[in-house]
Predict the structure.
Amino acid sequence: MTETVSELVAAAEDTLSSAHVPYSEYRVGAALETADGEVFVGCNIENANYSNSLHAEEVAIAEAVKEGHTEFARLAVVSGARDGVTPCGMCRQTLAEFCSESLPIYCVEGEAVVEYSLGELLPAAISEDTLTESRE
Ligand code: THU
Ligand code: ZN
């Protein structure tokens, strides 16, 4: 892994300025490190119809997957308020499509970085196994 946790957090922070948040005014940045050490970032992109808003984590994972990366090592998430925001339920499930329960997720609260694992944030995620086992 090429990045330190603070470098990964800094990459998430750098993308906050690109967030398109005219409705909530709540910026979120995410930095997702691939298993081979590349980092893909995302910010939230809101929409006037509200429901089409893209979450920072979704944008980061889409950027990585479209470049052929499907194995991930770590994720950092930060909001402009540095309030310790964690990925929402939808983003947790999106991450679970590609990441194991052990994926470390670093969330920024003030000057502190709180570490969670994906399994801790989303136990018993639905997975491909859930669907294939039900066919047997
Ligand atoms: N948001 C994210 O980008 N990621 C999350 O998982 C939590 C919520 C965004 C969506 C919306 O633009 C703003 O934060 C307020 O919910
Ligand atoms: Zn989300």
About this structure: The pocket of zinc ion (ligand 2) is lined by residues 55, 57, 87-88, 90-91 (CB under 6 Å). The longest helix spans residues 56-66. The chain has a mean pLDDT of 96.
